[in-house]
Write a structure and sequence with these properties.
mainly beta; 2 domains; four-stranded antiparallel beta sheet; 448 residues; Glutaredoxin
Length: 448
């Protein structure tokens, strides 16, 4: 593991039926588990682009936004080493004060972490599943122990998939870890929860009876360039409660449109209780009597505020004509900073959509700064000649990833009129993504 610089579902809570008494421990916030550090429950809030800490009364105690975009999981090994998993698969580590973010190198294309004491565990994220991503790690999980010298030791557990392209889908899932080093895994595609000891030996497997007939993931006929993957979504999040029981957030149907919480005995895997959740029951907690209570996550964070937006790292880069343009040129305008390269196939698909987006708004309100990260100037110019973009092209010269710490291309960052980050966009999400982006831009332009 190394830090190289700075950074799938989630939320918060408020009583669904009656005010929350003292003594609550938040277990799940939206579709993510929480992490307990002292009296606080730390929860990723995906829609808010932040991590939120709740006290025992389920009041917001702290909001962290710096270095965070789309958080889906939080782990705090040793009680003071925060790690945040993003929907995109990127993982960000922080200092003990949650003020200095730094990117973690991970083993999987998209990772999540869970922790207990000074041990933490990494697995394939159930929030982002990409069958064709390169995944060569030969384990279901990778676990880390912090030694007295601060070094790390690792343990892996093999769980091979039936087909090479299904390594990710078959082995992605929810994780929980206990103080003995035993871990619990709920695959996203199968109705099962398995307990493994610290060496990766299976101790029991429980099934919830979600489907009459369970099928493995399979590819459907091509839709143009897309190859749809048909798969159930069963395992969503796991956590261990203060009462020592395992709590599993899962789907009541194959599409996860309805959710449920199952309570399991950790010694035997016996399901002790099942609670089916309604549309507004989007946060789950234990009260001081260890009874399940549910809340509306949106209500819990309604008064939390958005927190301060993070400033974007400034640049000063040459154009194709040799002029230098800095970030200050875009002051007062909503700006989309896009990183691309000629060898990036999704970038080719994205450029026409960016050109269309550029034409939707006035130049006094909106700009695009498209930064090439090509090393070969000839290939960069050939790409530009082929697509004739109407927006400025800046030359990054292959140095941008080291400065902005993105995992892959394309990568875009939307800035408000003050040069602060509104949202990060990883990859190319198609026409629907650009429709949503246009709506966000219009909202930012209209903001006072």
């Amino acid at each position: 593991m190394r830090l190289t610089g700075v950074v799938l579902l989630v939320a918060a809570l408020a009583a669904c039926r009656q005010p929350a008494p003292a003594g609550f421990t938040l277990l799940f916030f939206r579709a993510s588990s929480t992490t307990q550090v002292g009296p606080l429950s730390w929860a990723p809030d995906l829609p808010g682009g932040r991590v939120v800490a709740f006290d025992k009364q389920l009041h917001v105690s702290r909001v962290v936004t710096a270095g965070i975009d789309q958080p889906v999981a939080v782990a705090v090994p040793c009680g003071h080493i925060p790690i945040v998993s993003d929907y995109s698969g990127q993982v960000t580590g922080f200092d003990t004060a949650w003020t200095t973010p730094g990117e973690f190198e991970t083993h999987f294309p998209a990772s999540i972490f869970a922790s207990a004491g000074c041990r933490w565990i990494e697995g394939r994220s159930p929030y982002l599943i990409e069958p064709f991503s390169t995944d060569t790690t030969k384990g279901l999980v990778v676990t880390y122990d912090v030694g007295e010298d601060g070094g790390l030791s690792q343990v892996g557990a093999l769980h091979p998939a039936a087909l090479p392209f299904l390594v990710g889908p078959e082995n992605a899932g929810a994780l929980a870890l206990d103080s003995t080093g035993a871990f619990y895994f709920a695959p996203v595609v199968r109705d099962e929860i398995t307990k493994y000891n610290r060496l990766g030996v299976s101790r029991w497997t429980a099934k919830r009876g979600l489907y009459r007939q369970e099928t493995e993931p399979r590819f459907l006929p091509n839709r143009g360039k897309e190859v749809p993957l048909q798969m159930a979504r069963a395992g969503i999040a796991l956590t261990l409660g203060p009462d020592g029981r395992l709590y599993a957030l899962g789907a009541d149907d194959s599409t996860a449109s309805k959710l449920r919480v199952d309570v399991l005995d950790t010694a035997t895997g016996t399901i002790l209780l099942t609670r089916h959740l309604g549309p507004k029951e989007t946060a789950v907690a234990l009260d001081e009597r260890d009874s399940l209570r549910t809340f509306d996550a949106d209500s819990l964070v309604k008064n939390a505020g958005v927190g301060g937006r993070e400033s974007f790292t400034p640049f000063a880069l040459p154009t194709l004509r040799g002029d230098t343009i800095g970030l200050e040129r875009y002051a007062g305008k909503v700006t989309l900073v896009n990183f691309w390269a000629s060898w990036c196939d999704p970038c080719r698909e994205e450029f026409p959509h960016m050109a269309s987006l550029y034409g939707k708004f006035s130049r006094k309100d909106f700009e695009i700064a498209a930064i090439s990260d090509d090393v070969d100037p000839a290939k960069m110019r050939a790409f530009v000649a082929a697509y004739h973009p109407p927006f400025p092209i800046l030359v990054g010269g292959g140095r941008m990833k080291a400065l902005y710490h993105y995992r892959g291309l394309p990568y875009s960052v939307l800035l408000d009129r003050h040069g602060r980050i509104v949202k990060r966009i990883f990859g190319f999400g198609g026409p629907q993504e650009f429709q949503e982006l246009a709506a966000t831009i219009a909202k930012e332009i209209a903001a006072p």
